[in-house]
Amino acid sequence: MSWLVTGGAGYIGSHVVRSLSEAGMDPVIVDSMSSGVRRFVPEELPFYSASVVDIDKLAEIMDRHEITGVIHLAGYKYAGESVKNPLLAFEQNVTGTAHLLQAMEQSGVQNMVFSSSAAVYGTPAAAIVTEDTGTFPESPYGQSKLIGEWLIRDQAVARGLKHTSLRYFNVVGSGSEDLYDSSPHNLFPLVFAALNGSRTPKIFGTDYDTPDGTCVRDYVHVADLALAHVAAARKLEAGQELEPVYNLGSGDGVSVRQIMDAVARVTGIPFTPIEEPRRAGDPARIVADGKLAARDLDWAMRHSLEQMVASAWKASGSRA
C-alpha cells in the first residue's frame, strides 16, 4: 500500500517524499513539472509526469499502485502573482483539487492530507491565529486554498473521506543539500540569487504596521513540515480521527528585515537591503499557534532561524 504525493518533485513535496520513504510508506509521485525538479525524486521511486486536472490518469495511477491515501501538495503557490493571474490560481488549486477528489472517489481512495496555507486568514486582527480564527483571504491564492479545504470537507460529508488540512506560510531551509527552493518568487531564493549575482537583495514594503515596518511571518523549516505531513498520513492510515485543520506555526513571527540580518550573519556578506514598495496580496502579519498540531502530529520547530538560513544557503549551491 502506497501514498500518492502530488507535487512530489517540488521543494516541499520532495522533502515529504523522502520522509515518507524513511517511514516505509512507499511514496508514488505525480508532478506536472511546471516548477518541479526531476532530480529531486529518487530514481527508484515511481514517478509520473501528470497534472492533477487529469482525472483518468490520476485514477489509473492510484489503481496501479493500490494507493492508500494522497498528500496533495501540487498547486499554484504564489500569493502576489495570483493577483495578476487569478484564473491560473483557481484552475490549478480549485479545479485541480476537485479533479483529484474525483479520481480518488473513482479509485476508492479514502485518505487525504491537504497542503493549505496561512494565507486563508488574510490579515487577522489577533496577534496569533488559531484554527478558530476567521478566514478572510486577501489574494486569489488564499481564496483558492480555502475553497480547496471546503471541497475536501464537503467530499468527507458526501463520501466519508478521511482528511486533514495543514496551514502554513513561509517554508524555508533544506533537509538535504541536494534539495533547494527553486521558486522565483520566494524570499530566500531571491535573496541568495541577488547575493550570488553581486546584487543587493530587496525588501518589498517597509511601511507595514509592524515593529520594523516589514512583513512578519512564521518561517518554518521544510524538514519539520515534512515530518508533520507524514505524521498526519500515518494517523489517517491507522484510522485515527484528526482535526479538519491544523496550523503549523511557531507562535512567534520573524520580520523580513530580521531575515535579511540573519542572511548577512550566516553568509558573511554584509549588505543593506534596497527598499521597494509593497507587493499586492501581502498581509502585514501572520503568526500561527501550532499547539493543536503539537498535540496530534508531533509538530515542533526543531530548527533555529540561523539553522534555517544556513541549510538553505548551503543547498542553494547545488543549483549550479
Task: Chart the SSEs and their pairings.
Blueprint: E1 2-6, H1 11-22, E2 27-31, E3 47-49, H2 55-65, E4 67-72, H3 79-84, H4 86-107, E5 111-115, H5 140-159, E6 162-167, E7 170-172, H6 187-196, E8 202-204, E9 216-217, E10 219-221, H7 222-237, E11 245-247, E12 254-255, H8 256-267, E13 274-276, E14 285-286, H9 291-297, H10 305-316
Parallel strand pairs: 1-2, 1-4, 2-3, 4-5, 5-6, 6-11, 7-10, 8-13, 9-14
Antiparallel strand pairs: 9-12
Helix pairs in contact: 1-7, 2-4, 4-5, 8-10
Organism: Glutamicibacter halophytocola
Domain NAD-dependent epimerase/dehydratase: 3-249
Family: Belongs to the NAD(P)-dependent epimerase/dehydratase family.
Q: Which descriptors apply to this entry?
A:
3-stranded mixed β-sheet, Rossmann fold, UDP-galactose 4-epimerase, domain 1, 2 domains, 320 residues, globular, single chain, 7-stranded parallel β-sheet, alpha/beta
